[in-house]
Design brief:
The complex is a heterotrimer. By secondary structure, chain B is α+β, with helices and mostly antiparallel strands. Chain B has 7 helices and 4 strands. Helices cover about 45% and strands about 10% of the residues of chain B. Classes of the chains: A alpha/beta, B alpha+beta, C alpha/beta. Bound molecules: flavin mononucleotide, iron/sulfur cluster and FE2/S2 (inorganic) cluster. The site of iron/sulfur cluster has 14 residues of chain A, from helix 14 and helix 16.
Chain lengths: ~425, ~160, ~850
């Protein structure tokens, strides 16, 4: 399938508005402004677009709630926090084709009658900050943004808000807190952002990739769009593959492409012909899969059936040289570092898990430690305020579920048996 | 007490206008202050708190929540090396050792000549080209020891 | 009507509340750590998890709102396991030091672990270690005991509004910092102590001095400090107050206190308390027996009365004594002595201001409910910082701002600076012009309501127009119109008036303008008062022109009523005011002065003049709990029982009658008992046996207190106009006087700092408060200090026509460019020693704010 979202990405000047327009950009916005707001939402519904940030929530539904709320002004926030380890799918859009996102947001803003938009950009993408600022400036000049877009009396203002290094700010209510100048700690829901969001106004939060689908949906219509990829969650999907494959990188493919094909066909298989040991399919928070479980369509509906999740579509491939205790340890180190500290189980539990994993990896594990890991993680799972803590717990549980042996050997042999890394 | 330069104060004033509340300008304002002061010292917080009318303790609470605000003086250049899973399995930790042995640059530390500080990062979104790092605002990917030597040579 | 099922119990609810509250209403207690009735919902600790049918995962009861028909279980084995798990997490970093911890016995964590376990810890790694911190003057912090419920932070930020502390860092590194005093604008309210569920933040005052279960008695009473009249509970062991705590759901303060109320109780048992009467014998004050002292006093009083007449004697009543004490005091003077020479320091502003306001709006027009402020849609503040003078009232203004109400201040009000105030910066010499402009602007924007012709006449006469306002008032045109627009637009406004207004040049005229503003916006007036029973003493008739119930002495028919009740004659000649007493003492016509619970030599401006005047009398009687500046020059000093040692009532600024209760036993006499003793010797029997008996008489005699009893007062909410009839005389002529002489720019002006942490005699003897604010200082704006090349901590000499003070300098941005601030709280260093006054022709209040001052570097090292 030829690229839809990432078309023109090879063009070194792709970030410039001129190049973007040459390649057909900013044709959907004028078209959209001719449409009724509700009709745009209707097209999105027909398209069956689901959020690409991880949760896969139906976009049209979220938009309908927000539009129904009488409070004004409304806000459209783009979630460009891309913090899920292994994920680098939004970055090419932000750095190479920012105008795709800007056009997507202008269209969405109109559809939602939102007058203000912010792109919540993770602090770790400083280059993207400058690129977006420049691009937004160009869009204002061309009157694709502003108080009277294309003379249609439509107002939509857009600016970039830079995060400062906190994974949790990817969670939409934490993102809102952070945008308001507070710590990025999740809020109590309800009320939901669509009713009481940023500055207490109705707010829609969507992922970069999600919003970047809008121009195409408007261009071809929801009907045609829904024909791409999995019937029950259609559209193009940007997968990002890292680790031990021959050709790691970003792949735009139809939603539902088989994980096995992604690794062995598109990415050229395991690096150096080594043996595959494990795959994390959707970013570090999603359950790890052993080699015999990767024959499954990568979408929101099928992955759960195969014991994992699509998440952000960030595939991390690990070959035989990798120590999975070490990976699990590193993952927990991440969660411990990123726990916002609001709720007890995550704040205290992630650190405890990390410590236990650390001593196992260092050959200081004790009999019963694996069960302790399972018990502590189950004391976290389902008891936390937000999904971050759940993620941490389920990582431990799934690594043990599929690779318990490796943990036990670490403990009994009092060393890390796996060569490779530690060699 | 050290104050913000007029330019910086003005910059914050402009940022302020992008938001309906002064409080919302806190994060960007702290970036500006960090640029001015090199790190978020008490003076820096004092200054931000004054321009935005946000209580100092609140500003400090927010500032210390985020990993990218610095709370100690830093070297002239900040090496931000990712060691999260994708980078780790492709040898990021060996590169950390390399920085230690070759430049006596340890996580959280600064080289004796004050040229570099090393910060270990969580995923920086360059997993496809791992291992990767940021030096100040520049991405460097597909790292190896030789490449790192070349890169660091460019900075002073 | 919402019906929910909790543990099989049907619970009916009027409105949607949290499952936690719903359960509570049914007597089912769900364990919590982070949730607290006074604080915003949080949902962090996760202990309150419950099972809700048809809901996938466990829900937190503190955040989940009930919906009709839900079925909840709060105690199942599964839930118990979860709670054990959570507690195990909390104990990872919690020291097991209950044996040494002062919180043991009232620690939520301890209780929960007892109930749910765990019994052993599976955590093998190192616990977090944080040393105990005593860097704070009133708090002791053991942050390694902190469970990160963040209650203290939500209290400090979301309720108190001091925002002095915050959660620093994140995740497992989260910790709460700092309490480091002024730098982080801590207000030392100690409200964080109230909400901390563990032993992390505690009062330092009772550290290691007792265990909660060793407290023998708890007495609910009223704070001795300011006119808000917060309810507090004195916890006592061996007749020593160990701790003072508020009570949630009780009193105007509903669980909150300020630094004075919570930490200011140490004066009670202070070693400098007077124990025996003192008589001046050949120059020195020497201990004497009660009989000796009392008969000396009675003899002298009689002597003076016989040779010079009753009007040669006068009495100064006390805003710190009970209604009963003050009632007996004025009755003693009116009946046993036979003069109306009774007054008090209420004359320094409150009395005159209230009289003026009531003349316009009617008696009781300043009696407005303090919590009501939070619901106003705008609050105008003039003449002081409510958050310092009446702190708990200040919190209501902050709450109003949080709810989106507008806060408008004339002048900079430090305590409201983070509450997005609309500020009209005003230098003293432009304040009048500014207020005039506000009045005329409102007159244009709203028109005249037409309900008070006398007042409207005066308002019409105002001919100042808001043009060239920048020049005349020093404020920006756009700020001004914004300010007046908001005011004109508000529907439930309140006007808060501080003494600073009345005590400044043209104070009376400014008060008129404030009243005019209030009239035009149809607001409610709050008249701030520093002293706990300033309102009460006026209502008791401790004023030269007023009888109990605020009835004028000058009206014969009023006098008649009291004469029949008191069986005697009341002089029709209204008595001397406080300041007239001083003059009379100076010119020798006042021979004897009886001062009860007051310290005029320190608490009146130009205190040296006052001292000399009092020295000039033949008889100076001082009745007090400490040997005050006034006591030191007295002929007789009579030791009285103090707050916490006696029964009685106070009347707060809302005119709410409240019960003061005896919390500790101490040998000595109530003020009223001492007076009664003297009265007996003068031939007027006063055989009261209790304060309650006195109050019974008050409720017979005073028309506004009619038929009140202690029993009713104790039920709470006994608020003016009570059951009796207020005085509804037609408003008399409204006096206004605009003197043309108001200081001009460029001069440095001496102004009074009215600090949060002090009150004078009492706070001086409360170690905790003096630790917070240890010595007298002068405050100046950095620029002003710069002009005179003075630096923080250096000594500065302030000279006025009356003399000089030398004080350490504190640089403070919130001080006006042309102002120098000094407190009048510290012995030998009172601002009043160099502040002169002239009396305002309208309110009779001394105009002390803003007299000219010269400053230079101090000479003494
Ligand atoms: C811990 C956590 C981290 C998240 N991080 C991100 C992120 O980095 N980027 C993102 O788009 N969504 C992230 N999400 C999902 C957002 O909460 C939200 O669902 C999403 O931005 C909605 O946009 P979408 O519907 O277009 O996916 C995260 C959620 C959680 C719980
Ligand atoms: S699970 Fe709790 S502590 Fe962890 S990130 Fe979410 S709210 Fe914060
Ligand atoms: S009380 Fe409900 S989470 Fe703490």
């Amino acid at each position: 399938m030829e690229k839809i979202l990432l078309r023109n990405i090879e063009n070194p000047e792709s970030a410039h508005i001129g190049e973007y327009m040459k390649a057909g950009g900013f044709r959907s916005l004028p078209k959209a402004l001719e449409m009724e707001r509700k009709d745009i939402i209707e097209e999105v519904k027909k398209a069956g677009l689901r959020g690409r940030g991880g949760a896969g929530f139906p976009v049209a539904m979220k938009w309908t709630f927000a539009s129904a709320d009488p409070k004004f002004p409304k806000y459209l926030l783009c979630n460009a926090d891309e913090g899920e380890p292994g994920t680098f799918k939004d970055r090419p859009i932000l750095e190479k084709i920012p105008h795709l996102l800007i056009e997507g947001m202008a269209i969405s803003g109109y559809a939602l009658s939102a007058e203000y938009g912010y792109i919540y950009l993770r602090g770790e993408y400083p280059a993207a900050k400058d690129i977006l600022d420049r691009a937004i400036g160009q869009a204002y000049e061309k009157n694709f943004l502003g108080d009277n877009i294309l003379g249609k009396g439509i107002r939509f203002h857009l600016s970039v808000h830079q995060g400062a290094g906190a994974y949790i700010c990817g969670e939409e209510t934490a993102l809102i807190e952070s945008l308001e100048g507070d710590k990025g700690q999740p809020r109590i829901k309800p009320p939901f952002p669509v009713n009481v969001g940023v500055f207490a106004k109705p707010t829609v939060v969507n992922n970069v990739e999600t919003l970047s689908n809008l121009p195409y949906i408007v261009e071809v219509g929801g009907e045609a769009y829904s024909k791409i990829g999995s019937p029950d969650c259609p559209g193009p999907k940007i997968y990002c593959v890292s680790g031990h494959v021959e050709k790691p990188g970003v792949y735009e493919l139809p939603m539902g492409t088989n994980l096995k094909d992604i690794i062995f066909t598109h990415c050229g298989g395991i690096k150096g012909g080594k043996k595959l040991k494990a795959v994390i399919p959707g970013g570090i928070s999603t359950p790890v899969l052993p080699p015999d479980k990767i024959d499954c369509p990568m979408d929101f509906v099928n992955m759960p059936k195969h014991g994992s999740m699509l998440g952000s579509g960030a595939v991390i491939v690990m070959d035989e040289t990798v120590c999975l205790v070490k990976v699990c340890y590193r993952a927990l180190k991440f969660f411990e570092h990123e726990s916002c500290g609001k709720c007890t189980p995550c704040r205290e539990g992630t650190g405890w898990l990390r410590k236990i994993l650390g001593r196992i990896e260092n050959g200081e594990g004790e009999a019963g430690d694996v069960d302790l890991l399972l018990s502590v993680s189950s004391n976290i799972l389902g008891k936390t305020f937000c999904p971050l803590g759940d993620g941490a717990a389920s990582v431990v549980q799934n690594f043990i579920k599929h690779f318990r042996q490796e943990f036990e050997v670490h403990i009994s042999s009092k060393t890390c048996p796996v060569q490779g890394l530690n060699a | 007490m050290r104050m913000l330069s007029d330019a910086a104060a003005k910059e914050i004033g402009l940022i302020r206008e992008k938001y309906p509340t002064g409080r919302a300008a806190l994060l960007p304002a702290m970036y500006v202050a960090q640029r001015e002061f090199g790190w978020l010292s008490s003076d820096a917080y004092e200054a931000v708190s004054d321009v935005l009318g946000v209580p100092k303790a609140i500003a400090r609470g927010v500032g210390t929540f985020y990993a990218m605000y610095k709370h100690a003086p830093m070297g002239r250049n900040i090496v931000q090396l990712c060691t999260n899973v994708s980078c780790m399995i492709l040898g990021a930790e060996k590169l950390a050792d390399f920085l230690k042995n070759k430049y006596s640059l340890v996580p959280g530390g600064t080289t004796p000549d004050g040229k570099f500080s090393l910060v270990i990062m969580e995923c920086i979104g360059a997993c496809g080209t791992a291992p990767a790092m940021l030096v100040n605002n520049d991405f460097y990917e597909n790292l190896n020891e030789k490449y790192i030597e070349e890169i660091l040579a460019k900075y002073d | 009507m919402i019906a929910v099922n909790i543990n099989g119990k049907e619970v009916k609810l009027e409105k949607a509340v949290t499952v936690l509250e719903a359960a509570k209403s049914a007597g089912i207690i769900i364990p919590t750590l982070c949730s607290h009735v006074l604080l915003e919902k949080y949902g962090g600790c996760r202990l309150c998890v419950v099972e809700v049918e048809k809901m996938p995962r466990l829900q937190t009861a503190c955040t989940l709102m009930v919906t009709d028909g839900i079925v909840v279980r709060t105690e199942t084995d599964a839930i118990a396991d979860v709670r054990r798990g959570i507690l195990e997490f909390l104990l990872i970093n919690h020291p097991l030091d209950c044996p040494y911890c002062d919180k043991a016995g009232e620690c939520t964590l301890q209780d929960l672990v007892e109930k749910y376990g765990p019994t052993t810890s599976r955590f093998r790694e190192e616990k977090r270690k944080v040393p105990e911190s005593l860097e704070d003057p009133v708090l002791v912090r053991n942050m390694e005991r902190c469970v990160m419920c963040t209650r203290c932070v939500r209290m400090c930020d979301g309720v108190q509004g001091a925002s002095a502390i915050a959660v620093i860092s994140r995740g497992g590194h989260s910790h709460i910092e700092p309490f480091s005093g002024g730098k982080f604008n801590c207000e030392y309210c100690g409200n964080c102590v109230t909400v901390c569920p563990v032993g992390a933040i505690m009062s330092r005052l009772h550290r290691h001095s007792y265990r909660p279960w060793q407290l023998v008695s708890e007495t609910e009473t009223i704070c001795p400090y300011c006119g808000v009249g917060c309810t507090l509970v004195a916890q006592v062991r061996d007749d020593v107050i160990k701790r003072v705590v508020p009570r949630i759901g009780t009193g105007v303060n509903n669980g909150l206190l300020c630094s004075r109320g919570r930490f200011g109780y140490e004066f009670v048992g202070h070693e400098e308390r007077l124990t025996t009467p003192l008589l001046r014998k050949n120059g020195d004050l020497e201990p004497a027996s009660w009989d000796e002292a009392i008969s000396f006093v009675a003899g002298k009083l009689k002597e003076i009365k016989d040779s010079h007449g009753a009007d040669a004697l006068a009495g100064i009543a006390s805003p710190r004594c009970t209604n009963e004490d003050n009632y007996v005091f004025q009755k003693f003077f009116r009946m046993a002595i036979g003069t109306n020479n009774i007054d008090s320091t209420a004359r320094l502003g409150f009395a005159g201001a209230q009289k003026y306001i009531e003349n316009i709006f009617g008696q009781g027009s300043t009696a407005n409910l303090i919590p009501g402020l939070a619901n106003a849609d705008s609050v105008v503040v003039v003449g002081g910082d409510p958050t310092a003078i009446n702190p708990v009232l200040g919190l209501q203004i902050r709450a109003c701002a949080r709810k989106g109400g507008a806060v408008l201040t004339v002048g900079h009000v430090k305590g409201l600076r983070y509450f997005t105030p609309l500020e009209m910066p005003s230098s003293p010499h432009m304040e009048t012009a500014l207020l005039e402009c506000i009045v005329s602007a409102l007159r244009e924007k709203k028109g005249l309501p037409g309900s008070n012709s006398v007042l409207e006449g005066k308002i019409k006469d105002l001919n100042s127009s808001p043009d060239d306002i920048e020049k005349t008032c020093g404020v920006q045109e756009k700020d001004f119109s914004r300010f007046t627009d908001v005011l004109a637009g508000s529907s439930t406004p309140a006007v808060v008036i501080g003494k600073g207004l009345v005590q400044s040049a043209e104070g009376g005229y400014k008060l008129f303008l404030a009243c005019a503003i209030n009239y035009l916006i149809n607001g409610r007036i709050y008249l701030l008062t520093e002293r706990a029973n300033e309102q009460g003493l006026l209502d008791m008739g401790c004023a030269p022109d007023l009888l109990p119930g605020g009835r004028p002495v000058s009206y014969a028919e009023f006098r008649k009523r009291y004469e029949t009740a008191w069986k005697g004659e009341i002089s029709e000649k209204s008595g001397l005011t406080l300041f007239e007493m001083i003059e009379a003492a100076e010119n020798g016509s006042l021979k004897g002065l009886y001062v009860m619970g007051e310290n005029p030599v320190f608490n009146m401006p130009n205190s040296n003049r006052v001292e000399n005047a009092l020295r000039n009398t033949d008889l100076l009687i001082v009745q007090d709990i400490f040997l005050t500046e006034t006591g030191k020059i007295a002929d007789v000093v009579l030791p009285a029982l103090g707050w916490a040692e006696k029964e009685g009532t106070f009347t707060n600024m809302e005119r709410r009658l409240q019960r003061l209760r005896k919390a500790v036993r101490r040998d000595g006499k109530d003020d009223w008992k001492i007076i009664a003793g003297i009265s007996d010797l003068l031939g007027m029997r006063m055989n009261y046996t209790s304060a309650e008996e006195i109050f019974a008489e008050i409720s017979r005699v005073s028309p506004i207190h009619r038929d009140l009893t202690y029993e009713e007062i104790e039920k709470g909410n006994v608020i003016y106009p009570y059951k009796g009839e207020p005085l509804r005389g037609t408003p008399g002529e409204i006096m206004t006087h605009r003197s043309e002489v108001s200081g001009e720019a460029g001069k440095l002006l001496l102004r009074l700092e009215r600090p949060l942490f002090h009150s004078g005699t009492l706070s001086r003897h409360a170690d905790a408060l003096t630790n917070i604010y240890p010595e007298a200082v002068a405050r100046m704006h950095p620029d002003t200090a710069g002009r005179f090349s003075l630096s923080e901590g250096g000594r500065v000499r302030l000279s006025t026509s009356l003399g000089f003070l030398e004080l350490p300098l504190v640089i403070d941005e919130s001080v006006g460019i042309s102002d120098v601030l000094v407190t009048n709280n510290f012995e030998g260093k009172g601002a009043f020693s160099v502040m002169d006054y002239t009396l305002d022709p309208v309110t009779g209040a001394p105009m002390i704010e803003g007299m000219e001052v010269q400053i230079e570097k101090g000479v003494t090292a």
